[in-house]
Amino acid sequence: MATINFGGVLEEVVTREEFPMEKAREVLKNETIAIIGYGVQGPGQALNLKDNGFNVIIGQRKNSKTWDKAVADGWVPGETLFEIEEAAQKGTIIQYLLSDAGQITLWPTLKPFLTKGKALYFSHGFGITYKEQTNIIPPADVDVILVAPKGSGTSLRRLFLAGQGLNSSFAIFQDATGKARDRVIALGIGVGSGYLFETDFKKEVFSDLTGERGSLMGAIQGIFAAQYQTLRNNGHSPSEAFNETVEELTQSLMPLVAENGMDWMYANCSTTAQRGALDWWKKFKEATQPVFDELYASVAAGKEAERSISSNSQADYRDKLNKELEELRNSEMWQAGAAVRKLRPGK
Ligand SMILES: NC(=O)c1ccc[n+]([C@@H]2O[C@H](COP(=O)([O-])OP(=O)(O)OC[C@H]3O[C@@H](n4cnc5c(N)ncnc54)[C@H](OP(=O)(O)O)[C@@H]3O)[C@@H](O)[C@H]2O)c1
């Protein structure tokens, strides 16, 4: 572990320097890693592990487009690609990467394959934390571990191919074998993480549900929509409103924040812009703080999990989500966005 100062708070983290890939390979040399589910995280983690030299097989239900995707990615039926039950039987480490709703449905099928000494791996603390609602209660004689990449499986793969990595959290819920810590860190390095920071299952799920409902996805859309509407209500054109709300942010400003922080982005804008941003950010913080506190309380009370489980267990949940996404896509702001994107040079 390396001790790093995060804004005045010291934290222990794992980097590829203290735990190099060769060490990860040594720890997992006798393991068969069965990736169950080939949705978004499945391919990213499986392909990175395979390319890093680990022994990986896939478990995916047949008669599904996802099976065909796995074949197209080079997994060979009967050799490295199996039905879920067969892969779970062969695997010594079971990476449970079905959708969170799928994990609940399939749990009674998977559980018998979790025999003594195996490891059950998650990329989200959801199933274990909300066990009253999911009924996911692993046997006592298996390790239960987590590596949660902080981003999409697609980005995990893209960054790996570019020689970079997404940061991941890791956690140990149950150490039955005494090997859980080495196993989880080795897997975290193997899937292509940048650095690894330790958490527990509950903190992982509370922060993740808050983040995606909050600044990563929900809040950002809300703030975009509010500012766009204010500009449109005051007679600004869609092109002007979209450029001032979204395009400038994604094309110009966020890459600067990613590179060197908020102050550096501010410093690269006009002094007029800096004066205004420094005056107004606290007002936005005050206005949204109660909403974030309400959101966290809802997550902690299990209400967000309940909503997710009840909506995802409906047979037509995908259609309903697609309909809502379509409404978003068809809103004036995002239609204006499509037009702006088409006008980007080089398109
Ligand atoms: N999305 C991300 O990038 C991301 C990021 C960090 C952590 N995570 C976590 O990683 C885990 C996997 O998430 P994901 O987004 O990769 O999931 P996903 O894309 O929604 O997973 C779909 C996979 O689950 C299978 N599946 C769903 N329901 C099933 C059922 N009832 N029986 C059998 N198979 C079923 C699908 O097979 P079919 O195609 O045949 O239906 C497919 O293989 C979750 O715990 C999630 O919270 C995800």
UniProtKB/TrEMBL annotation:
Positions of Mg(2+) 2 binding: D208, E244, E248
One of the Pfam families matching this protein, by short name: KARI_N
GO molecular function: isomerase activity; ketol-acid reductoisomerase activity; metal ion binding
Associated pathway: Amino-acid biosynthesis; L-valine biosynthesis; L-valine from pyruvate: step 2/4; Amino-acid biosynthesis; L-isoleucine biosynthesis; L-isoleucine from 2-oxobutanoate: step 2/4
Coiled coil (UniProt feature): none
Residue span(s) of domain KARI N-terminal Rossmann: 10-199
Protein residues bound to substrate: S270
Broad enzyme group: oxidoreductase
EC numbers, comma separated: 1.1.1.86
Binding, Mg(2+) 1: D208, E212
Record's keyword terms, sorted: Amino-acid biosynthesis, Branched-chain amino acid biosynthesis, Isomerase, Magnesium, Metal-binding, Oxidoreductase
Domain KARI C-terminal knotted stretches: 200-347
Cofactor list: Mg(2+)
Gene Ontology annotations of biological process type: isoleucine biosynthetic process; L-valine biosynthetic process
Family per similarity comment: Belongs to the ketol-acid reductoisomerase family.
Protein name: Ketol-acid reductoisomerase
Organism: Chitinophaga cymbidii
